[in-house]
Amino acid sequence: MYFFYFDESGSRDPRAKRVLPDGTEQPLDHLYVLTAVSLYEFKWWRFDRAIANLKQELRDHLYKTRSLDFDLADCEVKSTWLRIAKQR
């Protein structure tokens, strides 16, 4: 048996806009990403462990550098945080 994980991000609407705090509108990035991962039932745990290890490194780094303590489930990395420094 195979497990599948699907995730989508972005907007399919090229007219989508964001309202800024000053009330002005700014067009959103015209990016839409659909990703799927397929894993065989006996191999999913290796993939999960690799991701959990990376999240643990992030958790440790945030604790050491900013004294922020998170549960592992809270350590999700958003692509906007990687691309846009102000969003981090």
Q: In a nutshell, what does this entry contain?
A:
This protein is of the alpha+beta class.
What does this protein look like?
The protein is α+β, with helices and mostly antiparallel strands. It has 2 domains: 1-42, no CATH class; 53-88, no CATH class. The chain has 2 helices and 4 strands, in the order ββββαα. Strands 1-4 form a two-stranded antiparallel ribbon. Strands 2-3 form a two-stranded antiparallel ribbon. Strand 2 and strand 3 form a beta hairpin. The protein is flat. The protein starts with a strand and ends in a 5-residue tail after the last helix.
The poorly predicted ranges are none
Determine the mean pLDDT.
Answer: 84
Whole-angstrom Rg: 17 Å
The CA-CA distance between the termini, in Å, is 38 Å
SS summary, helix count: 2
Q: Helix/strand-derived class?
A: alpha+beta
Number of domains: 2
Strand order, sheet with most strands? 1-4
- Gross morphology is flat
Strand content range: 25-35%
* Biggest sheet features: 2 strands, antiparallel
How many strand units? 4
N-to-C series of helices and strands: EEEEHH
Write the topology of this structure.
Layout: E1 2-10, E2 17-19, E3 25-27, E4 32-40, H1 44-66, H2 79-83
Antiparallel strand pairs: 1-4, 2-3
